[in-house]
Write a structure and sequence with these properties.
- There is one protein chain.
- By secondary structure, the chain is of the alpha/beta class.
- It is built from 13 helices and 17 strands.
- The strands form 4 sheets. The protein has a 6-stranded mixed sheet with strand order 1-14-13-17-15-16. Strands 2-8-7-4 form a 4-stranded antiparallel sheet, with no helix packed on it. A 4-stranded parallel sheet has the order 11-10-9-12, with helices on both faces.
Amino acid sequence: MAYSFKGGIHPDDNKTYTNNVPICVLDGVSEHVYPLIQHIGAPLEPIVEIGSHVNVGTKIADSEAFVSAPIHSSVSGTVKAIEKRLHPNGANVMSIIVENDGEYTIDESVVPKGKLEDLSPEEIIKIIREAGIVGMGGAGFPTHVKLSVPKDKKIEYIIVNGAECEPYLTSDHRVLLETPDMVLFGLKAIMRVLGLDVGHIAIEKNKPDAILLIKEKLKESEYEGIKLCELKTKYPQGAEKQLIWAITGREVPSGGLPADAGAVVVNVDTAVAVATAIKTGMPSIRRIVTVSGDAVANPSNFEVRTGISFETLFEKAGGFVKDPEKIIMGGPMMGQAQLSLNVPVVKGTSALLAFSSDMNVYDEDETCIRCGKCVKACPMHLMPLYLNMYAQERDYEMCEKYNILDCIECGVCSYLCPGRRHPLQNIRVAKQKVMEMKRARESGKK
């Protein structure tokens, strides 16, 4: 049986560019830039000064806020500046710039944390927090917060998300193939935190080699209690709410969190980061990035240190064979378009895609023909055509009435629209306005 959900679409996944390309480790970049905003939650403050020497794994920024995750240097060298630099989100944010000395000296704080069975759930959560681990599928929610479940919530499911449903992306696929034991160890660690005897790892059926490998691994006694869930290949199968529904049959309530449905979901690379922090003590300083698209000469999967520039990754992938019209961080459906290549890889950078004008199929906004395709395919069962209409009219009260905050911004409505409209862009803007209205109401009550 293939697990799935209602709605969604079946775009060409275009994964053949890189799904058979092994991960290549990149080092040797002279300058690394670490923006102080790399997760959902409170921004960080530098705890180093200009001129300070840092090593690989040295903590360089932190916050006392609970919803935060520290940043560590991914190289050894000297802090040469603390200034505003362009962030992948398009804003100029305070960043720590480290000049790489090429020595890659490991910080003395980086030591193994002991055997998993000897660690308490509280100790594991502390290790995860100090390692600066966040959701590496793109959202960037601090993992220790996700695992610090309120006492009134009962978690019955932990799911490692290996769906990777976005077209072009293959970084998670390669991680499953090349480091399966690290993925499964990370899952076992999280099961221990949550007090669960059963854990799930979910993989879409378009990755048969990864499915076969994990099946073989799960025959080993050390992975007892872990179940493999084969998912139907469909977008957005990897979205948290859709994944929870597919595997558990439970619906995350409107405005709620996965914990409200008794589930926790973590990305494949996040599980590896947890395993790395426990086994070696190394914090979150690396990640796997897919570099692909029709404008890229040699589409690749790279293991990179955070702080490296987008420009360097494209250079290592052979540069451009066509003039790129659009650069996207993340997948083509939910990723962020980029203003410049002089931007650093952050913890949430799962992919860099470069597309030429040949891929542009959109026109100026046309008239909605009310075909209903967006309604039928919406995985959240919303009414995108009305949300788009009210968003354009700036009627944010009606947007809220039509549950705009439940939109997961998957882009299905824009992808399907035969009128070549762009409802997602309008809905995104309106969501921000509705959230501002909601915060204003709540602050007024206080």
